[in-house]
């Protein structure tokens, strides 16, 4: 499987490259006070509202220093809109990586006996060039919000921020 790799909190992650629309090195994010804690805010990418999520918080970690949000300029992986969804998401990342080829046969599913649901968005783990990668399942992230009755693209409307979203 061809994947895009990236770093979050000194951990390596990978996602199917076919799901990636864009990797930004500087995306202006507008905070949304009414959104769940893991949502950093929203951004405008060529006229589309993109919800930017902290993978770090999504995995159940407490908030790190606010350095990544202070400037409102973040690096993000923006995903293509999936079939059956109008929501478009991006993940905050610390550092973009490279395109890597992972062997599907070497990807191991996560053990579901950890007693936590925080790994719901990780479909598996694998080793590549002496690094351990967690494989992101973007569909499970979108479904989390859909199943809770939330629509990430509507956060702008809830907070009345449509006019204030800066274009990327």
Question: How is this structure best described in words?
Answer:
This protein has one domain (2-160): CheA-289, Domain 4 (OB fold (Dihydrolipoamide Acetyltransferase, E2P)), CATH 2.40.50. The strands form two sheets. It has a five-stranded mixed sheet, with no helix packed on it. The radius of gyration is 16 Å and the shape is globular. It contains four helices and ten strands, in the order βββββααβββββαα. Residues 65-71 have low confidence and may be disordered. 31% of the residues are buried. The longest helix is centred in the C-terminal third of the chain and has 10 residues, at 138-147. The chain is mostly beta strands and 168 residues long.
Number of strands: 10
Could you say what the CATH architecture is?
Beta Barrel
- Fill in the CATH topology: OB fold (Dihydrolipoamide Acetyltransferase, E2P)
Overall structural domain count: 1
> What low-confidence regions span 5 or more consecutive residues with pLDDT below 50?
65-71
Q: How many helices?
A: 4
For the terminal residues, how far apart are their CA atoms? Answer: 30 Å
Tell me roughly what share of residues is in helical segments.
10-25%
Backbone CA Rg? 16 Å
- Indicate the multimeric state: single chain
Main sheet specs: 5 strands, mixed
Mean pLDDT: 77
Strand content: 35-45%
């Amino acid at each position: 499987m061809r994947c895009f790799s990236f770093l979050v909190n000194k951990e390596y992650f990978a996602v199917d490259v076919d799901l990636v629309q864009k990797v930004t090195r500087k995306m202006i994010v507008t905070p949304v006070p009414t959104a769940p804690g893991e949502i950093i805010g929203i951004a405008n990418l060529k006229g589309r509202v993109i919800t930017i999520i902290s993978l770090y918080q999504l995995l159940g970690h407490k908030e790190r220093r606010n350095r990544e949000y202070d400037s409102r300029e973040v690096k993000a992986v923006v995903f293509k809109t999936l079939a059956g969804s109008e929501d478009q998401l991006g993940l905050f990342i610390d550092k973009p990586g490279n395109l890597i080829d992972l062997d599907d046969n070497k990807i191991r599913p996560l053990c579901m006996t950890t007693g936590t649901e925080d790994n719901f968005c990780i479909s598996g783990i694998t080793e590549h060039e002496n690094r351990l990668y967690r494989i992101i399942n973007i569909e499970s992230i979108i479904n989390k919000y859909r199943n809770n009755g939330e629509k990430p693209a509507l956060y702008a409307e809830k907070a009345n921020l449509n006019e204030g979203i800066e274009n990327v």
